[in-house]
Predict the structure of MHS family MFS transporter.
Amino acid sequence: MSDNNQVSYENMTERQKNRTIWGVITASSLGTLIEWYDFYIFGSLAVVLATKFFPSDNPTAAFLSTLATFAAGFVVRPFGALFFGRLGDIIGRKYTFLVTLLIMGFSTFLIGCIPSYETIGFLAPVLVLILRLLQGLALGGEYGGAATYVAEYAQPGRRGYWTSWIQTTATAGLFISLIVILVTKTTLSAEEFDGWGWRVPFWISILMVGVSYIIRRNMKESPLFAKAKSEGKTSKNPLKESFGNKFNFKFVLLALFGAAMGQGVIWYTGQFYAMSFLQKVMNVESAQVDSLMATALFLGTPFFVFFGWLSDKIGRKAVMMTGMLIAILAYRPIYDSMFKSVNLENKTVAANGISEKRTAKIHNEIATDSLVTFHKETLFTDGTLVKKDSLIHWSANGPVMKDGKAEEPKVTQTIKLADNTKWYLVLMVFIQVIFVTMVYGPIAAFLVEMFPVRIRYTSMSLPYHIGNGVFGGLLPAVATYLVTTGKEAGHTTWYLEGLWYPIGVAGVCLLIGLFYLKSKNNNIHD
């Protein structure tokens, strides 16, 4: 945007500014939404990817490896924030997040092209990890650019409202990823989806990225940055000014430990851990999990805008700290209730509700052996249906022996929920999404207002991506580990052990935020 364009923007009427910013939000949000879609497709398909890119002899270890690879993309986000944040403060917001969009799009597409572990061995997880790291670097540069870009167009008194539209893109990206997966699963047979259909959501991203690139290419630079650049007031060394200056670095740390850290774990608990908990701990059928998660996210997404708007009225701190406090107090009761809603001990088997069958096929690698599957279905009076498969490796001489004993069968169990239970779980997830919207809706405006224009992209991006990428991104793997060890140790409430991580991190963040964050919104750096 030229200096003349900057002047003309400042001289616009309120109505003209609103029309302009809607165009800015549309262009920014579409690209950011697609990047979130690309990033979360991996997490949404974690259960499937564990069987494709990792050894299948230990399903739990394969799933944990998938979550670790998923988390790796989050861990490198701060490095992307530093690299692209620096570029954004030197050459501009627009060109920087054009680059991040292309990196993310091509990385996602290529993940869908990698051969399975059975085909290329350990090269498969290595290639997935490399592409996942590229995704993380790209996202590290994307969010800060989009949030800063929109905020620098918004009127100071309405920053919370306008930037909250960017905040909807993370949940919308996850929602769309679930819908794409659900449609793909519905369109294809189970065998087709397991064989190649899981790749389709990755391939689709290249089309969406192409459309978004065309739209973003025609965007103009933000008025505040364009003005600073025309006046020669941009930073020559944003990294040094952001983190080498003790005064500014104090605000970077405050932004991280007083807001972004707690917001990150609440976001991932309410959306990703909830999905993982339903699938892996409660054994709910995958298609039903996708359906109920998509429903809860769809119903909760408008509240990002509501709480962003509310933060303009009563302050960012009040909204975010309240959301953190309620989440900390409510998580254990919510997850305890979710788990007990599918407790089979409290259900009655229907008359003639049990059916069993046995199938056998030749072992894939040992021609003289067989794989025998014992399939059992149990229907309960409330409509709940439990499917249990026990897979046994059978040799010509009987059961295959391991360490002097018959090899343990591989048992999988899925539960198809009754309608009333499904809607109850939708409500439980929806409540968690509300917590997410309270802490996440105002966070972009909060971070933007903490730092001056010349180093804003760099300074706000790092605490955001450490809070979300490190503290939030590690949550699924850490929580799954805590649940697994709790179960092995025989704890009566083993299924709640994973919650100690988000409760602890959010609790520390709440205390720091309450004592050290200002209650009044900050507009002085414009």
Observations:
- The beta strands are 349-362, 370-380, 385-395, 398-399, 401-402, 405-406, 410-416.
- The chain has 22 helices and seven strands.
- The radius of gyration is 25 Å.
- Residues 1-7 have pLDDT under 50 and may be disordered.
